[in-house]
Amino acid sequence: MPTVTVARADVPRDQVVQAVRQELGSDYTVQPGSQDNVFSVNRGSLSGAKVHIKQHDGATQFHVHGTGLIIGRLINELGIARRVASAITKAPLDQA
């Protein structure tokens, strides 16, 4: 599971969702989850990732994991989850 740490506390989920949408483009669907600290990214019906946002020592951590059943989850861990983590890394989230 890729984890990205941003040196800023309390990064708003909506800011991250917007940054990931911009970075990945229109081929991906980025949607807020039912909880304030979760959002999902999908590309088609079998390719998906879920992001959990956690506060840790004055920073914000984003834990990204692939979704799906056993083999699909493994493929998504190696594919879309890494792309989502990369998009979060590239986003200017450390600025207020």
Helical run tally: 3
What structural category arises from helix and sheet content? Answer: alpha+beta
Query: What's the story with the biggest beta sheet?
Result: 5 strands, antiparallel
Query: What is the spatial order of strands in the main beta sheet?
Result: 1-5-4-3-2
Number of domains: 1
Enumerate the spans where pLDDT stays under 50 for 5 or more consecutive residues.
Answer: none
Looking at the chains present, what oligomeric state does this protein adopt? Answer: single chain
- Rg, rounded, reads 12 Å
**Distance between the amino and carboxyl termini:** 27 Å
Portion in beta strands:
25-35%
CATH topology name, in short, is: TATA-Binding Protein
SSE arrangement, N to C: EHEEEEHH
Name of the CATH architecture? 2-Layer Sandwich
CATH top level assignment:
Alpha Beta
- Fraction in helix: 25-40%
Mean of pLDDT: 94
* Morphology: globular
CATH H-tier superfamily: Kinase associated domain 1, KA1
Question: How many beta-strand elements?
Answer: 5
